[in-house]
Design a protein that fits this description.
The chain has 130 residues and is an alpha+beta fold. The protein has three helices and six strands, in the order H-H-E-H-E-E-E-E-E. 28% of the residues lie in helices and 21% in strands.
Length: 130
């Protein structure tokens, strides 16, 4: 009986600790997005510029996942309605899979409002500027 009480006490303590220390994920404020690092198309890898051009053309894209909805689960991009962002693969030479590089665009598929480049599979983004 004492052991069961100890287990309950430990579990209650762990739950309380997790509740008190677990802060909610916050989205970037507009000021943080405005100060986000940028990258020009010319500064991106050649494959990034090619993918960016394909986005404007509407494809064809080399991967089935290209053009699918990007969920922004990391909340590093401005918060928008589901379906606003779409992701596109930037080929990585010498890699047999999709690799880590992506372009994520918000807005209409062929005429996006904004696009972002990530070289580290969504750990960070840079806003693409012309």
């Amino acid at each position: 009986m004492v052991r069961s009480s100890r287990i309950k006490l430990v579990l209650t303590g762990l739950l309380l600790s997790a509740t008190l220390t677990n802060s909610p994920v916050q989205a970037r404020t507009s000021a943080a997005v405005d100060s986000m690092a940028t990258v020009s198309v010319a500064e991106m890898p050649v494959q990034g510029a090619q993918t960016y051009a394909l986005i404007a053309q509407g494809g064809p894209f080399p991967y089935d996942k290209d053009g699918t909805v990007f969920g922004n689960r990391e909340r590093l991009l401005p918060i928008s309605n589901r379906g606003y962002y779409r992701e596109y693969t930037v080929k990585t030479p010498g890699v047999s899979h999709r690799g880590k590089r992506r372009i994520v665009c918000g807005g209409k598929p062929r005429v996006p409002d904004v696009c972002y480049y990530t070289a580290d599979h969504y750990a960070s983004f840079r806003k693409i500027v012309p």
